[in-house]
Amino acid sequence: MKTEKFLSAIHHRFRVKFYYSAQEFVVDPYLISFDKNGNKILYAKEKNSDVVKKFDYKGMCNLKVLTDERFVPAIPVIPVANLKGGSYVFV
Known about the structure:
The protein has one helix at residues 2-12, and strands at residues 14-20, 23-34, 40-46, 52-56, 60-70, 79-81, 88-90. It has 91 residues and is mainly beta. Strand 6 (79-81) and strand 7 (88-90) form a beta hairpin. Mean pLDDT is 84; it is low at 78-91.
């Protein structure tokens, strides 16, 4: 359930609100990944901050996608040459 909500928020660039370690966070979600132990994590930038943080899925609760709050990515989009066919992949 969390993954689907985060994927939608990332795709549409909606902010997300959740509680993590008894503290409320409003973030711009960027990437879902796994840490070295295989735990699912979210990389996100806190609202009104320039710092991208890592949040463990297990510590998040009361997740809400804020469809009325969109964000513009602060991480620059860089074209990277794809080895197949010389096309570009944006990361």
